[in-house]
Amino acid sequence: MEEKGVKGWIDGDESAREMLGRVLSERPVIVLPPPLHRIPVRAGNVVEISGPSPSAKTLLLIQAAVRCILPREWKGVHYGGLGQLVLYIDLDCRFEPARLLQVLRCRILEANGRQIDGGRDNVNGCDEELLSVCMRRFLYIRCYHSFEFLATLKTLHHRLEKERPSHGERVQLLLIDNIGAFHWVDRASMASPLELRNRKSPSLQSVWEVVVQDLRKLLLVHPMLVIASKATILGNTVNEGERHFRGRFSVDMSTDTRSGKKEFQIQKFREYMPSVWQAIVTHRIVVQTSEEHPATASHRQDQPVLHLLEWLLPALSIMDKFIVKDAGAFLTS
After folding, report:
1. How many domains is the chain partitioned into structurally?
2. CA 182 to CA 180: how far, in whole Å?
3. What's the half-sphere exposure (Cβ side, CA atoms, 13 Å) at 25?
4. For residue 21, is it within any domain?
5. Is residue 57 assigned to a domain?
6. pTM for the structure as a whole
7. Phi (first) and psi of residue 181, to 5 degrees
8. In the chain, which residue ranges form alpha helices assigned H by DSSP?
9. By three-state DSSP, how is residue 138 classified?
10. The pairing of beta strand 267-270 with beta strand 233-234
């Protein structure tokens, strides 16, 4: 039977319409919720969301997760979700399940035409059955160091195969927060005395080569969209041999003396992730607050902090501005 199937696949023929239908069903186009909606992505893409802390990167991952775990329709109400599983790998170890529950609850209430009650977590009128169904679609893994992350990737295929029969759905979205969490610890551990270097230990480059290799293999067997957040560091000078990427916004605004208009300065960020990781990234987004000291500005409840988002890969000339509320991130004019 298996030999017949392989021979039939080799000798078989299909039209362009059949081929496109098969590809689109295996790797469907996914439109992420605003402010990540500008460019459609599909299973197999790797989207990197970079930005300093705090800049709402984790919230953007949560919003993408909520869109995925919500159904398209439920009891006659349109929710616009995908109704698929989400796998969240937490490398930062700071994920708050209560925040996910809050955003999910607000989305359910909004879809039912209910008003969100200020800063309180309004549970009245929320469909608890739907809430439970959605939360069962959210799979969570926490890793405390690089080797635990490697072990997770190597066993992920068997874990996903085990989860699929019980849920009846496949993982559509893989979220990694924060992909560079262990970079500086691993790099510092390699700057050890010479007597300790004699021990056989993998290099930083070899670790990331295995990470990317395992991730590529996983995406071949389990087509899914990967979104990874990454903390950035500023680079004030451009030295030869250093890699930088640029965003069209900066920590604060400057005023053009000729026009009198406020403009965002261009800010440089130093790239520290290995080139093997950069090669697998298909889409890159940079997000940042417009305040010079967001920590000191966050206490002003009457003026929410403005966040700025820009697509660098592929490059777009549009810069989106959004603010953070209980229900998530919302675009502003």
Report:
1. 1
2. 6
3. 6
4. no
5. yes
6. 0.81
7. -60, -35
8. 2-11, 16-26, 57-69, 97-111, 128-136, 146-167, 183-189, 194-197, 204-221, 275-280, 294-297
9. strand
10. antiparallel
